């Protein structure tokens, strides 16, 4: 069964006592699999893991994955005084105080006003194996929800494509049933044209066997039997593709192009209005199928 490339999934949960994570994943149409991952800086080491999970689950589509992290426990902090700034700024402040005749005693609050003198940085410990397992489970859950939505939309696409293929079969059968009539019409038309040309040219003798040979060749060129046979094959291959287990979006796109090619050839050979109407109907159905398969994985 085919699947769509459009979907959305979300999952959230606690990795441990220090982090709560929310994973969102959404996908839209794309010729290939393109994965975009957004992670907080202290989770960057998980990007290869996220991309590997995406490649395991999906084959096509533009996939956007966002992982938001909320701290549930304060980290340890590393407090450091920038001695270079202190050694450069404090003597100058004292010299200025002496020059203008004020006290050169500085309190701690005064020093805290010096930009970048005190540097406080959180000490981030590495992500544990248990936390990696938890975030892997959350990512898989979000992907499962996304895939479920893609499958549901794929069922809608499947029903629409199947109905259009059935309509195409009916139109194709009508074309096949009129094929002999078309051949007879072409034969009569070519004979009449030859007779008109001979009459216009005066007393011209045309051998009957030669005339029959040329007329048969012209009728064969206008016959649509080969196109009908190839179109039948393409329809059968399309039905197999949409009922298969493997991703078939690229194959379906190719088959729809091939069907349009055969239908266009039949249209160029058509001489009667009813045949042209059937050809236009076939082409319309294939164009709609082609639009639908652009969203098939």
Summary of the model, kept short:
The protein has helices spanning 47-57, 83-100, 108-112, 129-177, 179-201, 208-222, 225-243, 249-269, 273-293; strands at 7-14, 19-28, 33-38, 61-71, 76-81, 118-123. With 297 residues, it is of the alpha+beta class.
Overall description:
This protein has three domains: 7-74 and 129-149, Ribosomal Protein S5, domain 2, CATH 3.30.230; 76-123, no CATH class; 154-293, no CATH class. 61% of the residues lie in helices and 16% in strands. It contains nine helices and six strands. It has a four-stranded mixed beta sheet. The protein is elongated, with a radius of gyration of 37 Å. The model has no long low-confidence stretch (mean pLDDT 83).
Features:
single chain; 297 residues; alpha+beta; 3 domains; 4-stranded mixed sheet; two-stranded antiparallel sheet; 9 helices; 6 strands; elongated
Domain module tally: 3
How would you sum up the major sheet? 4 strands, mixed
What Rg, in angstroms, do the CA atoms define?
37 Å
Uncertain runs are none
Q: Beta-sheet strand percentage?
A: 15-25%
Q: Averaging pLDDT over every residue, what do you get?
A: 83
What is the global morphology? elongated
Order of helices and strands: EEEHEEHHEHHHHHH
The total count of strands amounts to 6
Distance between the termini: 11 Å
Q: Structural class, from helix and strand content?
A: alpha+beta
Helical amount: 55-70%
The DSSP helix count reads 9
Strand order of the largest sheet: 1-2-4-3
């Amino acid at each position: 069964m085919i699947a769509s490339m459009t979907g959305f999934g979300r999952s959230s949960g606690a990795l441990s006592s220090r982090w709560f994570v929310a994973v969102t994943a959404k996908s839209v149409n794309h010729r290939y699999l393109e994965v975009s991952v957004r992670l907080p800086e202290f989770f960057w080491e998980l990007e290869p893991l996220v991309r590997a999970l995406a490649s395991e689950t999906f084959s096509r589509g533009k996939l956007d994955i966002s992982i938001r992290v909320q701290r549930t426990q304060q980290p340890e902090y590393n407090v450091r005084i920038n001695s270079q700034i202190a050694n450069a700024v404090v003597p100058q402040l004292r010299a200025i105080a002496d020059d203008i005749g004020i006290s050169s005693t500085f309190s701690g609050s005064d020093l805290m006003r010096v930009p970048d003198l005190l540097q406080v940085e959180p000490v981030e410990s590495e992500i544990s194996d248990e936390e990696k397992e938890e975030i892997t489970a959350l990512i898989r859950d979000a992907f499962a929800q996304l895939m479920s939505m893609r499958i549901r939309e794929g069922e809608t696409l499947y029903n629409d494509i199947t109905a259009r293929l059935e309509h195409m079969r009916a139109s194709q059968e009508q074309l096949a049933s009129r094929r002999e009539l078309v051949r007879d019409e072409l034969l009569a038309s070519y004979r009449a044209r030859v007779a008109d040309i001979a009459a216009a040219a005066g007393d011209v003798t045309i051998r009957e066997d030669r005339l029959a040979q040329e007329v048969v060749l012209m009728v064969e060129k206008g016959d649509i039997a080969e196109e009908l046979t190839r179109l039948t094959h393409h329809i059968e291959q399309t039905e197999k593709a949409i009922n298969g287990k493997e991703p078939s979006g690229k194959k379906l796109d190719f088959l729809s192009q091939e069907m349009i090619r055969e239908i266009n050839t039949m249209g160029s050979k058509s001489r009667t209005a009813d045949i042209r109407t059937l050809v236009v109907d076939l082409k319309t159905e294939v164009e709609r199928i082609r639009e639908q398969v652009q969203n098939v994985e």
